Structures are given as C-alpha cells and as structure tokens.
Amino acid sequence: MNVNKILRASRRRSPPTMPLPVFFGTNYENDQAQKVSRQGTQEVSLTSSLSSVPGPQEGPATKGQGGSFFLWSKEGKMPHPPEADKTKRVCLMHARKGLTCSNPRCPMVHSPPSEWPKSTLEAWIKVIRDTDGLLFNDDTVPHDIVVKTLKIACSPHLRQRWSFGSNDLRPPSRFTPVAVPRTPVRHPPTLTPPQPVSDAILSTPCLSSPQRHLPLLSTPTTAPPPTPLPPTPPPRQPTFAASATRRHLDEFNKKYLGLADFDTTAASLVPGPPPFLPGLPSSVPPLAAGFQPFIYSRGFIETCLLPLLQSGFVDVTTTIALLATHPLVLHLAISYISLRQYDFCWIRNPNPAWATQTSIPSTKQYAMLACFFHYRLDTSFLFRYLGNNYTGAYREVHSTLSTLHKFNISSELITKYARVMLTGCPNHFVAESSRANALLHWRRNHPSIVKKLPQVQATMNKEDRNNFVIPLPHWIARFAPHLFFTPQHILEKPGKKDRQIFDASRRYTPWSTPINMMTSTPLGSEEPCLFGTTKDEILTRIYTLRADSPNLDIISHANDVKSAFRQIKLHPDILGAFSYIIADQLFLSCGQPFGADFCPANWEIVRQVLEHLATALFDDNTLCTKHRKYLDRLQWDRSLGKTHGSAFTRSMRDPNLPSPRTSLGTLAPTPHSVYVDDGIYIEFFKKNRIERAAAASIEAIFILLGPSALALRQDPISFNKLEEMTIAPINRILGHVIDTRRLTVDTPADFLDPLREKLSSAWGPHRRSFTVLEAETLAGQLGHASFTAPWLRHIMPHVYQSLASALRVNRAHLISTSQSFRFALKQIKQAPSLPPLQASLLASFYQAESARALHHSTTRHFISRTLRAELGLICDALNDPTIPTSSPISHLIDRTPLGTAFSDSSLLAAGGYSSDLQFWWFLEWPPSVRSRTLKYLKNNSTGNLIDINVLEYAAIIITFLASYYSIAHRPPDLGADPHPVVLIRTDNSSSEAWAQKGSRVSFSGRALGRLQAALLMRNPVGLRTSHISTSENVVADTLSRFSNINELLTSFPTLLQTQKELIGCRQFHPTVTDGTRKNHFLSWCSRIGLPDPCCPSSTLQARNFILACYVVSLIRGETIKGDGFFIRHSTLMGYVAQATRCHTDRRLPSPRLGVPIDYVALMTDASAARTALLPLSATGSSSAVTPAAAKSEWCNDHHTTYSKIKDPLWSGPDAVSFIAEDFSFYDADGIRLHAVSALSLDQGKCTSNTVLCPVAAMLRIAQRAKRLDLPALRPVAVYAHGKPTSRRQITGHAVTSFLRSVAQQVYKLPSTSPQLKLWSPHSIRVTAANLLHRARFSDSFIKNRLRWKSDSFLMYLRNTFYTADQHSKALSLDITPPTLADLRPLEPHEDVLTAIAA
Predict the structure, then answer these.
(1) Residue with more model confidence, 1010 or 245
(2) Contact indicator for 205, 325 with CB cutoff of 8 Å
(3) Contacts of 841 (CB under 8 A, 6+ apart)
(4) Annotated region Disordered: where (predicted)?
(5) Would you tell me the crossing angle of helices 327-339 and 243-256 to the nearest 10 degrees?
(6) H/E stretch holding 852
(7) How confident is the model at residue 817, as a pLDDT?
C-alpha cells in the first residue's frame, strides 16, 4: 500500500477534527518554541498538517507551521533545479513534502524520490542547501523525522551523514538558517478562576500562561515574520551500539516512503524487545522497601503522546501529523527509538567513584531517560527500579525495629519510625492539580538561581552523587505524567553558607496552588515538632550538673547528621509531585526537599528515636572500641582538668529540675538533645564518659540511617563537623556561646561586632533615612542579641514603633502611586462575596502580594529624634565593655524562683509584698500623677492621660527593686545563689508583657522600660513575671487601695490579722539620703570621665585609688550641698559607704578589702568631726608647697615614733618636724591670735588661691591635732586611725607612694616606669623652686625664701615648657643690636684697662 493510497483513504474517511495541544515552552534553556510566538490558537485536524499545506498563491508559509520542511520564497514560487530531463519536472508539492501532490490534475512527475534520476536528486539537494529564495526552518529540522525520511531513504551517500543511531539523539543541522524578522505578541494577564481539568482540555487546544507566547498551527497572517535566534547546540551524546538503531530507522523510512524493499520486522515504530529486557522487573510496581501505591492524578494529552505512539492505534497519516505538530513531539519519538536498544541496567548499581564526581554525567541522564521510557514515563516505577541508595534499600529496617524494641523505645514511636522508613513521606498526601496549575510553576526559579548558576550546579552535582535526586533531560518533563514543578531559590544569610531551598509556597496567581497547599500538614496529619525545647534542655542539663558537682569541669559537644531531611525518602507514587528544573535538567527528588512543610515533621520522628536510642546505647562499653577510629579524631580543649573548682560559678540544687543521677545515686547515662540535625550532649570532664556518649551518638545514627560504606555512598554523619567542634567548656551551640564554667550564655562576637559596626557607621549620626527592609533587618538582629541581653528589649521599642509608622506611610504611598496595589486591596475587599474556597484563595494571595509590596517598598523614611536617641543609646550600651551582653543560665531556665512577690496598683497608690523575701511596700502616687489618671481625666484627648497599665508596670518595677534590696541585704552566705530569680505576679496582662518584652506604644511605658533596662544591666537577680487573677491577688490589691500612708499605718494592725502573709514582713522604704549619696558618687564619676564608676575590669588597687580620689573631692567640699561645704568625718564615712555599695551591689569585691595600700583609709583616717584634711591631698599639700617645707619638717619615718633633735645643746622641743607651737595666726586687723616661734612668723601670709591656701591648710592641721588630743610637743602632722581618738603620724613612705600613684594616673605611666622614681616628698620643694623661678623671682630670693644654705637649688630648676615659651618669645622680639654711638663714654679707669689690654 503506497502513500498516495493512504492519503486518499484518509481523505475519504474524513476523520473528525479534534483539538491538538500546541506546546508552549519546549523546555530548552532558550525555549525554542517561544521564538515562534503566534496570536491566538486554532483547532487542527489530525491530517491538517499534510492536507492543508498552502499553495504558492496562498502567501508565504509561517516558520515552524505544521512540521513544514520548506518555506516559500517571498515571490511565492519555488525555483526548479536545472534537471537533466526537461520534459517532465518534479512536482513542487511532492518535492516539498517528500510524499505526493494533493492536486489530482497536476501534470508533473510524482514518482518516489528513489526513482528519480541521480542528477535530479543531486540537483534538488543542491537547491535545498544553496538557494537563498528557499528558506529552511532550522528550528524543526534537527527534530523532524520527515527530514530523515527524505534524506536518508532517498540518498544512499547521505545516509551515513544523517545516521540517527550513532552518537546523538538529534543530528546536527547541515543548513544555514536565514534570518527572518518577527514580532512577539504579548498577552495580558487574566484573573479568572481556573476551570476544571476536563473543561480546560475541551475548551482550549493548549493550556495558556500569561508568561508564555505559544507557537500556533494557524494559516499565514499578515504579521511580520519572526526573527530567528541562534540554534541550540546539540546535547552530549550517549555511547551505545548504533548499527541496530540505524538499520531500524532506514527500514522505517523505506516503509513510509512507499519503498517495497523494507524489512517488516524492523520498520515498526515500536521495535522488538531489547536483549536485556528479560532481566528487568516487569511493569507491575515492585514493592521497594515496603512502599505502597497511591492513587494517580488525571492525565493530559501531552502526557498521553508516548503511549499513543507506542500503541500503534493511529494510522500512518495521523502519526506523521502528530510528529509534525511540534519539534518536541518528533524529538520524543526519535529519542524513544534511539534509546529503545540502550542497556540502562548499570544505573541502579552504586557508583564507586561517587566522591570524585564533579558534574552530572550526560550518560547517566540518557540512561535514566532510557529507563524512564521503559517504564512508560512512570516516576514511581523508575524510583522503585533504581532502589539501593535512591530508596535507602541498604537500611535493614526490620532489624532496626527489633533493636528499638530491645531498648524499650516507645511502641508508638517505633510504629511511626517504621512508617517513615518503609512507606515513605509524607504521612498523608492526596492531591490533584490541573495541568494549567502545574505549567504555571514551570521554570519560575528565583533570579538567584541564574545569578549563582555555577554554585547551584555544584550543589546539584552533590545531590546527584549522593543519589538524592534523579537527573533527566529537561524536555521530557512535558510528556511525563503526574509531574509538578516547584521553583528553586537561593537563601542567603550573612555569615552563613547559601542554602538552596524548595520554594513550595510561592503563588503566582490567586488560583495557583503550590505544593505546600496540596499537603495535609495544616490539617494536623503530621507530627508536631518538639525540637524547640532543645536549648532549654541543654541549659538545664548544665545547671543541674554544676549543682551536682561544683568542682568538676563540664564540657559540651555535638554530632551532626549529614543531609538530614534527604535521608528520609518520599513515597514513590508522589515522586513526580516534587520535581524541579534547573538549567537543562529535570530533577526528581528522592528525599525530602528542604522547603516542603511536612519535612520537619517527618524528621521529628527520627529525631526523637535518635535521642532515646543514643541515650540507651551509653551503657554499651563495646562501642568505644568499635568506633575508635572516629573517637581518636576528636579534639580536646587543653585547659580541661587544669582549672580548679574555685573558678566555677555555683548553681543551686532544684527539686523541680531533673537530677543527673539515678535513684541509686550513680550518674545516669548521658542524655542526648537533638536540635533538628545537631545531636548535643553535655557531660562532666571524664574522658571515658565523653567517649561513650560520642560513640553512642555515632552508633545510633548508623543504626537508624544506615551503616558507613564510603565505597558506595557518603556517611550519614558529618565527621568534619564532629572533629572541628572542640570538646571544651566553652562552645558555640545553636547560635550562642555557652560557657559551662561561668554558667552564662552569650551572643557570638562575630554577630555582635558587625552589629556594633552597623550601629556606629551605617546607622550613625550622619544617617538621615531608612527603608522598611533595612529597619526590619536591624530589628531582627537586635532581637536576636536580646536573648542573652534581656535589657536590650526595653531600650529598643521605638525601633519597632518607627517600623510600624514606616509601614503605614508605605501603604499610603502605594495607594496613591501603585495601580496594582490598589487592585490588590480591592480584591481583598471583594473576596468575601465569593464562595468560601475561592474567597480564601483570593484573599490570601492578594494579602501576600500587598504585604510583599509594603515590606519591599523603596520609599525612604526620615529618622526621628526619638529613634536617633534610642539608636545612640543602644550603640553606647553595646559598645560599653562594662555592660554584659551575656545572661546567666539560671535566668534563662525554668527553675524554682528564690522568692515570689505580688504587686498591684490603683489610681491612688500602689503596693506589693513577698512573704518569701519578707517585705512589703506602699507608695502613694503624687498629685502630679493622680491628676493625669482616669479619676480626673475622661479621655486622652490632650495626650496627658496616664494609663492604669503604666501604673501597674511601675508597681512591678518597684516590687523588683524591693526584691533586689531584700536579697542584697541578707547576711553574707558563701553558699548563696549567685544568680537568684524573682517571680513577680500581677493581675494586669499588659504590664506583665511589658516587663518581659518592653512597651512599644505607651510613651510612659517606654520611659519605664528604660528604667527597667538600667536595673537589669549587671544585675545578678533575674526577673520573671506571671499572671494572677484579681480574686487571688488580695493582699497586694488591699495595699494599693489605701489613699495615703497614714491611713495604711492606722489600719495596719487590723490588716495583719486578716492578711497573714504580711506577718514577719518589714516595710521596704530605703532612705532618700543613701540613694542621693549614691547618685552623687555616680555624678562625680561621670564628671571626671569614668565610663563605669566601678571599673570592673581594673585591678582592686586601682579601684581603691579611684574611691580615694572621690574622698579627696569630698574633703575639699564637693558635696551634695555644693562646692565649699565642708562635712564632718561621720558624714564623710556615709558617703564612702554608699560609694562602696555601688561595687558590692554588683557582686564586685569591695575596693577596700584585700588591697596592698588602702588609700581610702589613709584619707578617711585623717578626717575627724568637722574637718576633713588629708596632708596627701591637694589642699593638705598646699601647706607644704607654698612654704616649701622640707620632708623632715612635716613627716616622719614611722607611724608611731618621730625624729628627734640630737643636738645636746638644744633645750627646746625635741621634735624635728612641726609642732603646734610653730604656727601663729592673725586676724584681719593683724592682731596675733596665737604665739608662735620666729621661724614661722614669716610664713603665715594668706593667698588669694583658696585651693593652695597655706593658712587654711595649717589652720585645719592645728584644729585636727587639737581634736585628736595631740600633746603639745608632738609632731602636728597626724591623722585619725581606727577609733576617733587614735592617731598616726604621716610618713615619708606614704607620701612617696601617693605622689607616684597620682603621677602614674595623670601621666598614664606603667607601674614599672623608671620615671616614677623621680617623685618623692622632696618634689614639693622642687615644685616650689620652679614656681618662684617661673614667676621671675631672683635666685637670692628663692634661696632665702626656701631656706637653702647654698646654691644647690639651681640644680632643681627644670627646663619646663614655660621657660621654653619665654625663650621663644624673647627670640621673636625685634631687638636691634647696639652701635658704638649707643655706648656711654668710658670711665678713666676703663680707659686705662683698655689701653693695657691693647
């Protein structure tokens, strides 16, 4: 039967017209079908591509139309080749299609090409290849079987060139394409709801997408011709035997060209079975590892093409018409024929060279495609056939189940584990998606994929070599049934590796349904994830271990499961629902993809089993020997075992926390806490126990996820991370630095340092504006840091407030400028009028779109003064080294509080109490507060209203202060809790939340929050709050109902009878004076530039010296009442006590205890009654500086004995230094007030310098000597020591030490500097000499005034900057040298001397 008869018979049958799919997106990387965009669609008959070929008068044919081989020239005529036989020309139509002419009256030759003369055939070949007027469709020729039909069958010498079975699935084009310009057509997006699948198939010949332009099978139009793009290079070729395929194609072409000598057994589209076929599993789904089949979804005509072509149901004409509809259809048939004989059995064998694979081999893709063809494009059959590493078949699940039963793992947990391993994931998945919805997610990868394509390809190579994905050529996705495509995205986080995620929630239209909307996870079908409690378990474990053994070091370590989610396999029947396309490859996920909502829930089952099994395996002593090669690679911190218990922070035993010991008193097996894929264990520094814990963790992972077999696959454990993490007391775990010695949790420096830099530079004073996204990033980073620095939450509320305000501004801006945003808001508003399902889809989609527009808007917002001040405060606090960013573990765990307190407030007063801490307090709100409450204001129209929530919050803060005061004033106890916790209960929910998270709305609440932040900084007492009903909060409520303190005190005896909780409690009412003196000390420190008044990083001696300097300022009269107000000794000691409390309140050692030299004692001992002079101070030293007394005149060598005059002829007082009789004083009228010796009469002149006034200093010295009952003939330079009447003498050694310490602080000299030795008591006389010399007094005056017997004082004159300045001024004077005329006449004796000299 020849072709002409076939065509005539087909025309007589007149087959009904049915819609054929016109494929958009041929799935090439450059999408060749998109190159030939058309307007509209058209239903095409199965024979239309052959019978409806336009003639020359119908106009130029469209490129790619109906499988066309030629294009008509612009003149509408095809030139004939110069044939040898001019009598009969070959029919143009016949030559064009290679079949026959449709015109029965055509007089031209219609013989088959094999009967043409050789010269005619060669001439036609030359015309096809060389004629410019004959345009060649290069897009279709490489995939067009008609081309092979014409070329291979008709030209024996071209058959070798076009052999299809050699090394390529599509032969290279031998023709040069001619550029034809084209204009793509843009289709507007549509918002109509999708139709059901069946309706969609019947209503349109293709499933359109607003993002694609479809190639159409339509008649030529007047639109300008399209512009061709460069041809896609052919893919790499698989290696297999080519002779059988070439012979099959030759015979196939002969048969359908009407040649009689074809082989009937080899000319079928579906050849006979390959030789390796009998060894393959049948098409019945094999049960791999116990997988059970699911129900399939509906098909589509694209997915039915291969079965249709394989079936032989359609005739030749219809087959050729199908192949001509689109290049990919023809490519499908060619690929199937080419790979029919390919032996793909090797792909299921593990690759021994998997570790060295650098890219996905093309041979593997074609082998996968051949196997895919064999199982009729069924992904579940393909997955089951591959088995081995792909399905985790190497795991002995049934043996594992027996092991779990052996270790008494929960039966319910074992059942769930069996389901995960034997059936697959998810737990429940029944879904149906239209073809339109699937194609809507087609090639929607995030731009980050293209931006980082080399990195993505390296990631996919890693996935393939670990058998986590099945790679296939990308174009087969159009024909495989039951596939859904999910876009991919690169998640980038600063400081972390990029992670490729499965964007399973992204929606593109209101009616699109991503894969996460198809799962049943929101309906509760999956397990709840409980790994969020892991951090609490770890911290509790550390705290209880320290309480159990205070002197033992505690270590932390972790084991990591490699590719945890991928270890859990998907059910084979839903494998196609989790596919994606990257570049030119289609990937089928075998393991759980990172991004599907059921992945954490299914891993949660394995995680819980892993925790229990690793803990149970601890007692197996053989595991250390079994895994010795891994244990020997562990890294140990060198400080382990070298730190004594005194360096460890104590913790308290808590009956509500789990004990680390068994009921018999022995240490229990080390528990394992797994956070997602990190198995963390905490243990005492006992090497045997640590190794047993690590070995148990390794063994548990091998049991659950398969043993180690590096020759076949990667290990399920990341041994690199196991080695990199040192076994140490300080480790970075779950994003925080945990110190088991100090029992603290801190934020890592590599997180805080960039944050500090950002606040100082990017958000510094120079910045004027921000975007919402920038503010959200900053708020997120500050929120992360506030986990270990809870005070930070209370000084950053305006960051959130500014962010909320910026979002409101963005909304208003988008409403006025963005049409799409207004449309989204309109759709949200109209959604409730639709049916419930459609309303939910529409509203959720446009809510997400509008939120995305709001948060990604580039509108900039100015930084307000309040926000700038808050950012500056945050920056200063984080940059202050004295403010810790760490938090004690005891403040973060749910432990028993040291005491429970209750608070309440009314509009008149507030009160609180604690029977555990034995205090109660009451505070009457002042009139300025009461007048701004609801008692006097009806609303907040003026903005002055103080809300009750603010008053309740203030009550909580006062209660916390009272609790801290009660704890701090307890008797010293070496076993006391170093980090106690107080629980405050209140009946106001808002104030309870503010105390934990900070107030973001109320300005008064934010101000109180800053006060709370200051209280939490460096505070050893932690704060927790909880809610209590008003009916239970009786005592605090009763206290707050009194209007004033007098009313309360009057009713207090009655109150004690009704409220037994107050019995034994004392009132918390700290004196105002103490607080004022503390504030005075803090103000003094701020005035002199000390960032931290306590200087915790300085030595104890340095802190003692700073406190001594504060005492000096008090002695000089710098008190609360102002400068020049001198205080008594007892008042001075009160100031010192409160300054010292500032140190001890922060749990710092007292600066007065344990120091080599107590400078504070030296100064306070010199104070008595009303005077407060210390000779070593600036004011006291003035008596020595101004008269420049020698060392022997005012100090001695010992505290109790003094130097005596040894001259036997001396009959006066024997003291060398000054005594009281040496001083004389005069009043304003010059009347002598006291008899003194002649030596001191010329030294009693008062100066105008009140700081360096010797008269005032000497007067205080004399008065102090009188108060101390000093004998008249004893040295007057004494100070009080110990008891009020006890005294000591000033020594030269003390003076030297003081002067050198002052010089060290002033000039920033190290303690080892040799320059410090230049300071001594003699420096006072040296200073006096230089001062007089600076004042330009003569040498004789200096010598006489300072009582030098020789000119030795000249050696003490220094070349100071004052003398240098005077020298410079002298050099700058314009002084003319004297001339002879300026000289006076010589005297007679001068003339004589001049003559003698001459």
Answers:
(1) 1010
(2) no
(3) 510, 511
(4) 1-20, 37-67, 213-240
(5) 130
(6) helix 836-855
(7) 93
The CB density around residue 1261, as the number of other CB atoms within 10 Å, is: 25
Q: Quick one: how many helices (H) and strands (E) in the chain? A: 52, 26
Sequence-distant (≥ 6) Cβ neighbours of residue 1213 within 8 angstroms:
1219, 1221, 1273
Query: Where is average pLDDT lowest: 189-198, 495-504, 657-666?
Result: 189-198
Mean pLDDT of 300-326: 81
- Alpha-carbon distance of 768 to 1141, in angstroms, equals 43
Single-letter amino acid, residue 962: A
Please tell me the predicted confidence (pLDDT) of residue 317.
Answer: 82
Q: Which of 868, 700, 882 is nearest to 798 (CA)?
A: 868
Name residue 256's beta-bridge partners.
none
**623-635: pLDDT as tens digits:** 999 999 999 999 9
Q: Yes or no: say if 510 and 191 are a contact pair by the CB < 8 Å rule.
A: yes
Residue 1134: pLDDT band by 50, 70, 90 thresholds? confident
CA 780 to chain centre: 8
Could you tell me which residues come within 8 angstroms of residue 626 by beta carbon, excluding any fewer than 6 positions away?
695, 699
Name residues whose C-beta falls within 8 Å of residue 399's C-beta, 6 or more positions apart in sequence: none
At 26, the amino acid letter reads T
26 contacts 475 by C-beta, under 8 angstroms: yes
- Cβ(334)–Cβ(63) under 8 Å? no
Alpha-carbon distance 1371 to 1212, whole Å?
A: 54
Residue 922 burial class via C-beta count within 10 angstroms: exposed 0-12, middle 13-18, buried 19 and up:
buried
Long-range contacts made by residues 398-401, C-beta under 8 angstroms, separation at least 24? 400/703, 400/704
pLDDT at position 684: 94
Encoded tokens for 204: 């349109």
CB atoms under 10 Å from CB of 1309, counted, come to 14
In this prediction, residue 1252 carries a pLDDT of: 59
Give per-residue pLDDT as tens, 557-571.
Answer: 999 999 999 999 999
pLDDT at 467: 93
Q: In what helix (H) or strand (E) does residue 1172 lie, and over which residues does it extend?
A: strand 1171-1172
Q: What is the mean pLDDT of residues 783-812?
A: 92
Place of tokens 């996705």: 477
Taking the CB of residue 294, how many other CB atoms lie within 10 A of it? 16
Task: Note the residue count of the chain.
Answer: 1398
CA distance 924 to 909: 4
Q: Token pair for residue 1200?
A: 């109790």
Report the C-alpha dihedral over residues 616, 622, 626, 629, rounded to 10 degrees. Answer: 90
DSSP letter string over 278-345?
GGS--SS---STT----------GGGGHHHHHHHT-S-HHHHHHHHHS-HHHHHHHHHHHHHTT---G
CA 459, 464, 468 angle in degrees (round to 5)? 100
The pairing of strands 70-71 and 135-136 is antiparallel
**Interval 659-679: pLDDT, tens:** 999 999 899 999 999 999 999
What's the rounded Cα separation, in Å, for the pair 1183 and 1187? Answer: 7
Confidence of residue 367 (pLDDT cuts 50, 70, 90): very high
Instruction: Return phi, psi of residue 627, to 5°.
Output: -110, 30
Tokens of 184: 């793509």
Residue 349 above 80 pLDDT?
yes
Degrees to nearest 5, angle at CA 502 with 501 and 508 = 120
Say if strands 579-582 and 585-589 run parallel, antiparallel, or are unpaired.
Answer: antiparallel
Residues 6 or more apart whose Cβ sits within 8 Å of residue 1306: none
Structure tokens at 544: 């209880």
